[in-house]
Structures are given as structure tokens and as C-alpha cells.
Automatic annotation (TrEMBL):
One of its GO terms (biological process) is cell division. PROSITE patterns: ABC_TRANSPORTER_1, ABC_TRANSPORTER_2. It comes from Roseovarius pacificus. This is Cell division transport system ATP-binding protein. GO terms for cellular component: plasma membrane. GO terms for molecular function: ATP binding; ATP hydrolysis activity; transmembrane transporter activity. InterPro entries: AAA+_ATPase, ABC_transporter-like_ATP-bd, ABC_transporter-like_CS, ABC_transpr_LolD-like, P-loop_NTPase. It comes from the Bacteria. Keywords: ATP-binding, Cell cycle, Cell division, Nucleotide-binding.
């Protein structure tokens, strides 16, 4: 096994997940190939966030296999999972910040946690803050940010470690259409830089808008299963 499995950065094979009741997700197989762009959609409660958590090793499957960068999560020590997770940037659905730190410090937090030399990363941090359009807000505290500014700070924090994969959970929740387009453009730009992207969203208009800019596969969770959505969006 193993070697002939293709080169998916994140691979799920016949995965099922249950929080303890009945199965929420059944027989899910998925490969995120390098450079690919995926949307994950489905009704509220279908299991989008849960599936993303399986994709970054925050949850272990109750059946089937999850491989992160070629290694089965079940064989991984906690440290191995932590290392793999550094290669995966996550924009969480409820982006949380440390409110006593500045926006800039919050974006830099993954660098601090992993013991990087902040001085050496200063230019990177500045560039990234500028890229998400938050230079003028860099010294503000998170509670002073608008919804769109929070989402952009969360995106910057997710990519500060230069991950190979970015998983974004409803990155355009609670922002207006114009801001959701702006966030989408940032994610498309990351993809053009070679990053593998998966966005969970219930916003079909966003998915339609994306199709003009990027070749994306649209996956839908329906009745516990993952389907490739057709052109009928
Ligand atoms: N930690 C947990 N323990 C038990 N049940 C959970 C837990 N987390 C989520 N669930 C349940 O699992 C189901 C799927 O939740 P999930 O958050 O994955 O859905 P979602 O598709 O992301 O929904 P939304 O679009 O509202 O974000 C829901 O019914 C939810 O209540
Ligand atoms: Mg969710």
C-alpha cells in the first residue's frame, strides 16, 4: 500500500465519523492534490467543520484512514500531528483572538508558539499584514476590528507559517458581498502561489463567483456522504 496511493497532501479513505450518536459522516474519500482548489458545501449541521477537523488531524476518524502528507494519523505521535499541522493553515469558523494583544501580535502568534525568531520574520509579518490590507490596523486590538477585518486577520494568521495547505471554514461568514469577494481574491491568490486550498461555505453565490477566477472542485456533504457537485449550482 502507501506508495501507489497518489500524492495527495491530505487523503481520506473510506472515512467515517461519529461524535457518539449515529454516524455524521460515512464512507468519505477525498484527496487534496498539491495546488488544487476545493469548495466544501452542504447544509448547516451536515458536517463541514467536522470534515475539516479530520483533514487537519484535530479529530481522528472513527473508521477509515486519514493521511497527512503521506502518514496515517493513527500512527502519529502528538508531536508528529503538531508538525503536520504547521503545514496546514486553518481559518476557523469562529476566529478567536487574544484580545489583549495587537492585531499584528495575533497574526504573529503561530511564529511565537513555534519558537521562530520574530525579528527575522518581521519583514514577512509586515508584508503579510499589508497583503490583507491591515497595515493601518496592525496596532489595534481585535475587539476594535470589523467582521471583515477579523476575517482578514484570521487569514493572515493562517498563512504566516507558509503552510502548503489552507483550510478555511466559512471565511466569508458575517461579511458583506464586497468583502467576501476580497477574501476570495486573497484565497485565489494563495492558490496561484501554489497553495492547496479548501473552503467550507454554504454561500453558493461565492462558489459561482469563484468559478470565473479559479478551477475549483465543489464537494457537497449530503446524507452523510461526500459528492462531487455538478454544474447545477
Ligand atoms: N464536539 C461535538 N460534540 C457533539 N456533536 C457535535 C460536536 N461538534 C459538532 N457536533 C454536531 O455535529 C453536526 C455537524 O457539525 P458541524 O459543525 O461539522 O457542521 P457544519 O456543516 O460545519 O455546520 P455549519 O454550516 O452550521 O457550520 C452538528 O449536528 C453538530 O451539532
Ligand atoms: Mg461549520
Amino acid at each position: 500500500m502507501g506508495a501507489d496511493k497518489g500524492a495527495g497532501l491530505i487523503e481520506l479513505e473510506n472515512v467515517a465519523y461519529s461524535y457518539g450518536g449515529g454516524e455524521l459522516l460515512s464512507d468519505i474519500s477525498l484527496q487534496l492534490q498539491p495546488g488544487s482548489f476545493h469548495f466544501l458545501t452542504g447544509p448547516s449541521g451536515a458536517g463541514k467543520t467536522t470534515l475539516l477537523k479530520l483533514c487537519y488531524g484535530a479529530l481522528l476518524p472513527t473508521a477509515g484512514d486519514v493521511r497527512l502528507f503521506g502518514t496515517d494519523v493513527r500512527g502519529m505521535e502528538r508531536d508528529d500531528i503538531a508538525l503536520s499541522r504547521r503545514r496546514i493553515g486553518v481559518v476557523h469558523q469562529d476566529c478567536q483572538f487574544l484580545d489583549h494583544l495587537s492585531v499584528s501580535e495575533n497574526i504573529a502568534l503561530p511564529l511565537m508558539v513555534s519558537g521562530r525568531d520574530l525579528l527575522a520574520e518581521a519583514a514577512n509579518l509586515k508584508e503579510l499584514t499589508n497583503w490583507v490590507g491591515l497595515t493601518s490596523r496592525a496596532e489595534a486590538r481585535p475587539p476594535e476590528l470589523s467582521g471583515g477585518e477579523r476575517q482578514r486577520a484570521a487569514l493572515a494568521r493562517a498563512v504566516i507559517m507558509s503552510p502548503d495547505v489552507v483550510l478555511a471554514d466559512e471565511p466569508t461568514g458575517n461579511v458583506d458581498w464586497e468583502m467576501s469577494q476580497r477574501l476570495l481574491r486573497l484565497l485565489v491568490e494563495l492558490n496561484r502561489m501554489g497553495k492547496t486550498i479548501m473552503i467550507a461555505t454554504h454561500d453558493l453565490a461565492l462558489i459561482r463567483a469563484a468559478k470565473a477566477h479559479v478551477q475549483a472542485r465543489v464537494l457537497r456533504i449530503s446524507n452523510r456522504h461526500l459528492q462531487l457537485a455538478g454544474a447545477d449550482l
